[in-house]
Amino acid sequence: MGVLGFIDRLRNDDKFSRTRIILENLKKLSVDEFGSGMIKAFEFVSEMKLEGDYLEFGCFGGYTMTWAYKAAKRCDMNKIKFYGFDSFEGLPDIKGVDADIPEFKKGEFSSSEKEFYKDLRRGGVDISRVTTIAGWYDKVLTEELRSKLPLKEAAVVLVDCDLYISTVPVLEFISPYLVEGTVILFDDWHCFKSSPEHGEQKAVREWLERHKDIKLSPYLPFEAFGQSFIVHRV
Ligand SMILES: C[S@@+](CC[C@H](N)C(=O)[O-])C[C@H]1O[C@@H](n2cnc3c(N)ncnc32)[C@H](O)[C@@H]1O
Questions:
Q1: Residues 6+ apart with CB under 8 A from 29
Q2: Within-domain flag for 17
Q3: Which of 84, 137, 177, 202 could form a Cys-Cys staple with 154, CB 3.0–4.6 A?
Q4: Is 7 inside a domain boundary?
Q5: What is the DSSP letter of 161?
Q6: CB of residue 188 inside a 6 A radius of ligand 1
Q7: Maximum alpha-carbon separation in the chain
Q8: How far is the CA of 181 from the centre of ligand 1 (A)?
Q9: Is position 178 within any domain?
Q10: pLDDT tens readout for residues 141-182
Q11: By residue range, what is the domain housing residue 46?
């Protein structure tokens, strides 16, 4: 969920009207002030001269895709394409290890694909450079999808899908696109009380055990719950 999810929860709650006003103002902040984790990631890959694209798993209100777009523009990465993967129906059923600590609800962060594009347009994103893939990750992130997408390498990946069960298929899917220097941002690294046995931390540990050719160097923390990493291919 990260800070943004929290913000949206509060915005929809009448008890928090003052908080809502503050949060509306926060939304007006520029990418420099609020999306600094994203900017650093793009600055890094731009310095490294990576030519890959931006992949986002968890699109919802379009905030992070808009930041990514602005960060890429600022780094003169004008050829980069933006891929957004989401159910556009919110979170799946919360079960298994994700149900241990009650933090998320089924259907939370539901926003349609149409709404998502509307949000991007509002944020000034050139949507001709955006491709969305709608559906549940365990169903749509397949070899068949790989063969259809004109995607070769990932420069920056944002994993913002909150749950262990969602992160597992995402990591398997992105593996072949990762190159030396790809930056992966995990927006929910410290959710579930930062437990290594839950959420993104557990999914990453297990994934690295399966893929000995992939190593991660911790890069930067961002916002309250996020952590980014730099990929090494060995
Ligand atoms: C916290 S929101 C993402 C916030 C977004 N980055 C933004 O800037 O507004 C989490 C998103 O992950 C998506 N999601 C989570 N698990 C999923 C799954 N298994 N399959 C597809 N989408 C999933 C939800 O639909 C939701 O849009």
A1: none
A2: no
A3: 177
A4: no
A5: -
A6: no
A7: 52
A8: 25
A9: yes
A10: 999 999 999 999 999 999 999 999 999 999 999 999 999 999
A11: 31-233
With the most atoms of ligand 1 within 8 angstroms of its CB, the residue from 31, 56, 60 to mutate is: 60
216 forms beta bridges with 231
Rounded to 5 degrees, φ, ψ at 55 are: -120, 130
- Would you state the structure tokens that stand for residue 219, as one six-digit string? 């890069």
Structure tokens at 49: 């001269």
How many domains in the chain? 1
Residue of 11, 54, 59, 174 to test ligand 1 pocket, by largest number of atoms within 8 Å of CB: 59
Q: Whose CA is nearest to atom 3 of ligand 1?
A: 58
Q: How far is the CA of 5 from the centre of ligand 1 (A)?
A: 10
Cβ of 58 closer than 6 Å to ligand 1, yes or no, is yes
Contact 59, 159 (CB under 8 A): no
19, part of any domain: no
Distance CA 71, CA 65 (A): 10
CA angle 116, 119, 124 (to 5 degrees): 130
Half-sphere exposure of 88 (CA within 13 A, CB side): 14
161 CA to centre of ligand 1 in angstroms: 4
Question: Confidence class of residue 11 from pLDDT cuts 50, 70 and 90?
Answer: low
DSSP string, 85-111: EE-SS------GGGGSS----TTTT--
CB 89 within 8 A of CB 115: no
- Indicate which atom in ligand 1 lies nearest the CA of residue 66: 8
